[in-house]
Amino acid sequence: MSQSVIRMTYRIETSGDVAALATKIASDQSTGTFVPTPGETPELKARVGARVVEVRKLESVPTPSFPETNPSRGGPYWRGEADIEFPLEAVGTDLAALMTIAISGVFSIKGLSGIRIVDMKLPPEYAQAHPGPQFGIAGSRALTGVKERPIIGTIVKPSLGLRPHETAEMVRDLAAADVDFIKDDEKLMSPAYSSLADRVKAIMPILLDREQKTGKKVMYAFGISHADPEVMQRNHDIVADAGGNAAVVNINSIGFGGFSFLRKRSRLVLHAHRNGWDILTRHPGLGLDFRVYQQFWRLLGVDQFQINGIGAKYWEPDDSFVRSFHALQAPLFSPSDRPLPVSGSGQWGGQAPETYAQTGRTQDLLYLCGGGVVSHPGGPASGVRAVRQAWEAAVAGIPLEIYARDHHELAQSIAKFGKVKKNA
Amino acid sequence: MSQSVIRMTYRIETSGDVAALATKIASDQSTGTFVPTPGETPELKARVGARVVEVRKLESVPTPSFPETNPSRGGPYWRGEADIEFPLEAVGTDLAALMTIAISGVFSIKGLSGIRIVDMKLPPEYAQAHPGPQFGIAGSRALTGVKERPIIGTIVKPSLGLRPHETAEMVRDLAAADVDFIKDDEKLMSPAYSSLADRVKAIMPILLDREQKTGKKVMYAFGISHADPEVMQRNHDIVADAGGNAAVVNINSIGFGGFSFLRKRSRLVLHAHRNGWDILTRHPGLGLDFRVYQQFWRLLGVDQFQINGIGAKYWEPDDSFVRSFHALQAPLFSPSDRPLPVSGSGQWGGQAPETYAQTGRTQDLLYLCGGGVVSHPGGPASGVRAVRQAWEAAVAGIPLEIYARDHHELAQSIAKFGKVKKNA
Question: How far apart are the C-alpha atoms of B322 and B357, rounded to whole Å?
Fold first, then answer.
């Protein structure tokens, strides 16, 4: 029986020799160091050493991704993609070990003018070792009661500064507008002016009261993140004990440790905000692709994953968002390990047709609008209606301007927010 | 009384207007979004809004740090440093909130061709809210018994692949050589062929036995990292219960949550390996400076902090290492919040004179040599002696080649490892 392996793909850029650097990565990240050491025997290397499987040449570039410390060398900068296999024996299934050995270490290697990790294929042992999403797509639909359309969500704005009773007033309006999902802005956790406990106390009765009257429970994701996992867990319990069913978690700010601790005890849908991710991916020659990064967080158990959207207010090009969406749609090991993709950032409904077209005409997503709902000229309730109308039009294949002729709220949105500008 | 503030300094790069982007950062990272929202009142902004205090112009650059998505715009790329103040009221003292609001979010902002966070000044409320180092410099000295010289350490090599009894054999040699500190390579945690429990069982009796005979206890830092804080805590307990006194923690792979959980219960000196840090700092126009990053981990309680060294095997320029060293030497709020700086990576003693000269002639450091000790022609024991000799020479102001005339092991090291090449 062949041994299980972890296969990584690195896009290497250098003024030197790409294949030599691939070999160096395999050595440095397993058994080697800057000089040969007596114990690095052929037996040991065969057992735990990483191995370059293939190097594919790519076009060179004239400018280095990391500016050269020695510019006299100059370009061109050769590029290639190297597949490197790590024996599972050397790494194990712990995600901190995987991150340390196969990813983090490579960014320190001398002689690279750029390196980006573009793929990772994990063996099935990882499926058994990790919980994956507790709710995911099916759970998010069951809890919101939304069946054959996207779940429509909004974000309380302004992001910071509202006191709990002010947030509650806005939530009352939004719930009355029949929105499916509401969340705290990722920047709102538990500041003194709006402690999580006070916010939960102000908001949950409104949602529970409405549920009693209408049978529909709005999913509210409270910002529970905290650097201390036990404080975060207490925050989680405050929400769950008050009848809440979701939480916003700033995954990069709490790290694997914080998320892992929370997931084991979680009764809530965990809505991941990847704030900070951009520094790991924005430069195309450096960092890592979302298809690599998302695997860690899915294994750890993210239920809903924010990934920007078409024409986002942020830097991210539309095609990058679309690739991220498809990465989330593909099972890692089984369909149940798929979190619900969350399309947000500068969304107001205008992006619905393009989003629908580009994501394989799926309605399995949470479509999230902050300012696009809250700043609607007719108020948040009209904002929610406009977004629903935009999605109805998109799914029916009717251009928004046509559909807007007898859908007033959508017409108002179009007038206010204008044409969608694509992010190239 | 004036309100407490957090002051951040951002180095902004853009083909647009630096001051306008500073204003956008202050808005986006506090109360604003892509459109004005009804609740963003002057009262609310005064209370929790971030504020641009000063923008200082810097020289422009011809090449964008983030390659332009729209290259037709072209350069030059204007640069400036913006000081922005966040009211403590808006953020609080939680480090996940601080990271989310003041740091992570800015990397997503459109219109920037580069952004690097170069300084952070926290108000004294942070000192009270966080534990800081439990052992730090004084504790590391007390536990190793090393007084008026650098603590000399080594790393078991090869990094991966040795079975516990093989590691133990090497540790026996190193301890006999009177080394002060030994550590697992950061890539070694608890793989099947060398589980932490088995490694501790094989190594600790050797160190305890030697302590009984000589009175000197070698500090051994075991790799205890794990994505699950409770597994990591069990690893910690295995080490502590067996009489160990230190652990290697891969801080970026476990995150704030993992470290925070561990620190509360720790009985061990926590030796931080910042594997992965390079992707956050290697591009000089992007990411963050170590002086910002290290503040988080010092507040969380790192006792010993690895920061490369002069002529490191990695990419880092010497002056960057020196700045990092000085950052660790400066108290945040009190002298006891200073961890022990750890100089490592490609070290073998040859770098001692330059290290001593550049770090303010301090001997408060752990000087760490892996291959530089293990691959010494006379074996590890000779390697340790060579490193000690190099430091004696450095402190006495005697050139190494002169000192090597009657210090055989140092002469062997010089012959094997050659001249130190500075990293420019």
Answer: 10
Indicate the pTM of the whole model. Answer: 0.96
Provide ipTM, 2 decimals: 0.96
A105 and chain B in contact, CB less than 8 A:
yes
> Which chain B residues contact residue A258 at CB under 8 A?
96, 229, 255-258, 260
Cα separation, A253 vs B292, in Å, equals 15
Structure tokens, A8: 């990584």
- The residues with which B248 forms a beta bridge, in sequence order, are B223, B271
Q: Which residues in chain B are contacts of A110 at CB distance < 8 A?
A: 313-315
Q: Which two tokens stand for residue A56?
A: 């594919």
d(CA B91, CA A310) in angstroms, rounded, equals 30
CA nearest neighbour of A258 among B230, B249, B110, B171: B230
**Strand, helix or coil at B94?**
coil
Q: Rounded to 5 degrees, what angle do the CA atoms A131, A135, A139 make?
A: 155
Q: Could A255 and B255 be called an inter-chain contact, meaning their C-beta atoms sit closer than 8 Å?
A: yes
Q: What is the pLDDT of residues A186-227, one digit of tens each?
A: 999 999 999 999 999 999 999 999 999 999 999 999 999 999
Sign of CA dihedral A289, A292, A298, A302: negative
Sign of the C-alpha dihedral, residues B265, B271, B273, B277? positive
Best CA proximity match to B383, nearest among B345, B409, B353 = B409
Beta carbons of A315 and B193 less than 8 Å apart: no
Residues facing A266 on adjacent strands: none
- Return the structure tokens found at B129: 């809210």
